[in-house]
Write a structure and sequence with these properties.
This protein is α/β, with parallel strands linked by helices. It has helices at 24-36, 58-70, 95-100, 112-122, 139-150, 179-182, 208-220, 223-226, 236-240, 247-255; strands spanning 9-13, 40-43, 74-79, 104-107, 126-128, 163-166, 169-178, 198-203, 229-235, 262-264, 277-279, 282-286. The chain folds into 2 domains: 9-155, Rossmann fold; 160-286, Glucose Oxidase, domain 1. Strands 2-1-3-4-5-11 form a 6-stranded mixed sheet, with helices on both faces. Strands 6-10-9-8-7-12 form a 6-stranded mixed sheet. Keywords: Carboxypeptidase, Hydrolase, Protease, Serine protease.
């Protein structure tokens, strides 16, 4: 699904925790990689930490994001941050301006709060994907699939393998992201409507008690009574340390509905080889 062309300008931004100065070498590599793909790169001036983990106030980071949306020459925005601070920017965003100046926004982890807000408040489809994957361990494959998927007519980065936990089909618009970070939208105007949606959930850290706590909150919010299906991505700590019960058992127990379709994929999450999933896009999964 082509969203970028050779010669397009793209913005690099950090709406969550600022990067340490040591990352400047990696950011130069990212710039060079995107340039080789034919893209012109412009960096936010709020990328690196200035005080503690902060690369500017919430309003300052939001101002940069708004400037990127209002700049008609910028065709896509890639957030290269993560951590805890992304929800600071939400109150300073003008979603009407964003709605009238749509462009592709990519981010993952803590950026779950922004990508879902852009969908719920401005109707944008957004991309749960970390552009830094292009310079990490699987960079050759990631670069090839990124180019094919977003600059040509391929879809390799959007196709993922999965297994059925229960059910045999699901069909709906995807919302969600990082299990913990997405919960920060609870009780706010920014949280998406869950009715008849497919919820995607993944996690980097977290042991069994944390998973149970977070998932129980989703249940108490009524989420699992409204969605039409659940896609589980990678749960890095849970799976690396082989915690028991595993995430599949925990989810099945808390959802407590044998009619709820649930699938599990290891190909979307915090891995350097992660695929992409589109928030706000309809997805259909069938047992074959």
């Amino acid at each position: 699904m082509k969203v970028l062309s050779n010669g397009d300008k793209v913005g690099i931004i950090a709406c969550s925790n600022g990067l340490e100065e040591a990352n400047k070498i990696k950011m130069k590599e990212l710039e060079d990689t995107l340039s080789l793909l034919g893209l012109k790169v412009v960096f936010s001036d709020k990328i690196y930490r200035k005080i503690s983990v902060f690369n500017g106030t919430g309003s300052e980071r939001a101002e940069v994001l708004m400037d990127f949306f209002k700049d008609c020459s910028i065709k896509a925005i890639f957030d290269i941050s993560g951590g805890d601070l992304a929800n600071e920017v939400l109150d300073y965003l003008d979603f009407e301006i964003i709605r009238n100046n749509p462009k592709s926004f990519f981010g993952y982890s803590d950026l779950s709060v922004i990508i879902n807000s852009l969908y719920s408040k401005a109707g944008l489809k957004t991309y749960l994907y970390q552009i830094r994957n292009l310079i990490e361990s699987y960079k050759e494959k990631q670069i090839k699939e990124f180019k094919s998927t977003f600059m040509e007519s391929g879809n390799e980065l959007l196709n993922f393998n999965y297994k059925w936990i229960q059910g045999n089909s699901m069909d709906g618009i995807v919302v969600g992201g990082n299990l913990r970070c997405f919960l920060k939208l609870a009780g706010t105007q920014y949280i998406p409507d869950f009715q008849d949606k497919i919820i995607f959930l993944e996690s980097l850290g977290g042991d069994v008690p944390k998973m149970v706590t977070y998932l129980t909150q989703y249940k108490q919010m009524g989420v699992f009574g409204e969605v039409k299906g659940i896609i589980l991505g990678s749960f890095t700590e849970m799976e690396r340390k082989k915690y028991s019960p595993d995430i599949e058992e925990i989810v099945k127990g808390i959802v407590d509905n044998p009619n709820m379709p649930i699938v599990k994929t290891d190909e979307i999450g915090h891995g350097k080889d992660s695929k992409c999933i589109i928030i706000g896009e309809r997805i259909e999964l069938l047992m074959v």
